[in-house]
Amino acid sequence: MTMDPTIHSVRAGRSVRPGAVAKSRGGARRTASLIAGGAALAMLMLAGCGGAPTAPQAPTASPPIGTAPAPPSAGSTAEESSPDARALQPPTSQREIEVKRATESPALVTGVRFAGHPGFDRVVIDLRHAVPGYSVRWVDEFVQDGSGKIIKTRGKAYLQVALSPANAHTETGDSTWTGGPVYPTGLTNVLNVVRIGDFEAVVGVGLALNRRAGFRVFSQSSPDRLVIDVAH
User: Fold this and answer.
1) Mean pLDDT of the chain, nearest integer
2) Can you name the residues that pair with 139 across neighbouring β-strands?
C-alpha cells in the first residue's frame, strides 16, 4: 500500500500533510492583511474625529482685590473719597490743609474714634450727612470756641481740626458727641483728642501730640467720616 509522504512537527510530535501546511500559511497571510487593514482604518477614523491637541492656555491674572483711589497728599486742598495702599504708610507732610465745600445741610458729628497703626495713629470723626468743608492747622494751644477759655491738655504739639458747616448737637440742643472735653487715647503720638467747640456751625476737634509729625486727611463714605492720620 502506497502512503503519502509526511512532514513531522518536532514540537507537536505529530505528522502534518504538505497541503495542510500550505493552507495554514495562506490563512495566516490573509489574517495579517486583515489586521493591517483594520489598524489603518482605525487610524483614519481617529484622525477624522479631531485635530491636533490644543496647548493648555495660561491662566489669566486676576485684578487685585480691595484696591481704592489714592488719598491726597497732606497740605493739598484736593482730596479723594478713600485711600489706597499708600494710606497704610506713615504720612510725612506737615503742611496745613483747607478744603471748602458747600453742603445742603450741616453735617452732624456723632463721635470720634481713634486707634494705633504701624507707624501712625488714626483719628476718625464720625458724621451724619455728607462730609463738610474742613481745615487742619497747627496751633499753640486749644481755645474753646465761644468762651475763649484755654483747654489745658498734655502734649508738645497741637493740631486743630475745624469742620464747617457742622454741628455736634440736635435741633433741640442735645449733644451728639458727649463726654470730654479731653479724651485720653493711649496712643503713641496722639495723646489726647479734645472737643474744642460746637459754635456757629463750626465743630472743633483738637489732637494733642507727643511731637510734631507728618499727617494726612481724607474723607470716606458709607458711613460718612473724616480720617486724620498722624505719624508716630
Assistant:
1) 77
2) 158
